Amino acid sequence: MNAAPRLQQHGTVTHDGKSYSSDLQAFGDKEYARKGAGSWRSGPRQLVPLVVDGKAAVFDCRRVGSEDWGGIATTVYTYKRRMPLRHIVRDVRLWVADGTGLAVHSRIAIHEGGTIGGAEFTQSYDPDATPPEGAPTP
């Protein structure tokens, strides 16, 4: 997803038993994000780091099979992602479209001691998408 010039992502995040919707739109080096029906915030695009504290940020990668996701043939991968803040490790399951090589869905479990939450997102890549109306300019 780092390489996609335009990314639209929508999903649900659950933390400590509470859920909210989450939206992210990325355009080149800019991104726009919001929680629930809140206001959009904007800033420089946050790319996934490759190294955190001298260790691989993405590790234990596995191809686990093939599945149909919403009519799209996908290859499914699992991996662990080390986060720079609070040294949390997330378990990620990622569906990648066979035709484009782009992620179309992700499911994330967040651990801190025990599982404290998770997220599920659907990704799309509309080349004609525009920044959210009324969003601040980064």
From TrEMBL:
Disordered as annotated region, ranges: 1-22, 119-138
Q: Where along the chain is composition biased (Pro residues)?
A: 129-138
Q: What's the domain of life for this entry?
A: Bacteria
Please state what the protein is called: Uncharacterized protein
Lineage, highest ranks first = Bacteria, Pseudomonadati, Pseudomonadota, Alphaproteobacteria, Rhodospirillales
